[in-house]
Amino acid sequence: MKKLFTLAVVILAIMAVFAEEESINPVGVYAAKLPSADGMGRIIIIHLFSNGNAMRTNVYIGKPSGDYVEQGKWEIKDNIITVAVEKERKGPAVIGSKLKFRLEKDGLVPIQYDETPFGGKLTIKFVKLNEVTPPKR
Predict the structure, then answer these.
(1) Around 87, how many Cα atoms within 13 Å sit in the side-chain half-sphere?
(2) Which of 23, 47, 61, 116 gets the most CB atoms within 10 Å of its CB?
(3) What gap in Å lies between CA 102 and CA 18, rounded to an integer?
(4) Quick one: which of 118, 121, 91, 116 has its CA closest to 34?
(5) Whole-angstrom Cα distance, residue 29 to residue 107?
(6) Which pLDDT value is given to residue 5?
(7) Beta bridge partners of 104
(8) Model confidence pLDDT, tens digit, residues 93-119
(9) Rounded-to-integer distance, Cα 49 and Cα 61, Å
(10) Can you tell me the distance from the alpha carbon of 75 to that of 114, in angstroms, rounded to the nearest whole number?
(11) Given a cut of 60, is residue 8 above it in pLDDT?
(12) Are the beta carbons of 62 and 40 closer than 8 angstroms?
């Protein structure tokens, strides 16, 4: 009986871990600060909207002429988010290219991406930003 109880507790604990992973809401804004070859750095912002749209913005600190925006659609399966780029404005993305991220509790980790906008193979983590809601009047 004691072994059965222990087994039940272990199974419930495992189920709780998987339930927590599945309940992460990916909708939101994620940001990462990266180095820049000829500037003070850059900030890459990824927006995942609730309607399935996605946007990636690259902002060069102190050099706005390099900024660009890419748009597309996103979907999630097994905590892997895939973003398909559909259009870009002055960006290096190839239309139809796909970016893949592993969804974690506090952000996104790129697992498949074009290294060009990121400056090569880097260890990157996009941190999920808190939503700011204006006060009601």
Answers:
(1) 2
(2) 47
(3) 15
(4) 118
(5) 9
(6) 45
(7) 107
(8) 556 678 899 999 889 998 887 666 555
(9) 25
(10) 18
(11) no
(12) yes
Cβ burial 20-47 (10 Å sphere, 16+ → b, else e)? eeeeeebebbbbbeeebeeeeebebbbb
**26 within 8 A of 34, measured Cβ to Cβ:** no
The CA angle 27-69-119, to the nearest 5 degrees, is 95
Give the span between the Cα atoms of 26 and 87, in whole angstroms.
Answer: 22
The residue ranges of every structural domain in the chain are 25-128
3-state secondary structure of 25: coil
Query: Domain 25-128: which topology?
Result: Lipocalin (2.40.128)
Count of beta carbons in the 10 Å neighbourhood of residue 120: 7
pLDDT at 3 over 60: no
Mean of per-residue pLDDT scores for the chain: 78
Q: What angle do CA 71, 81, 53 make, to 5 degrees?
A: 30
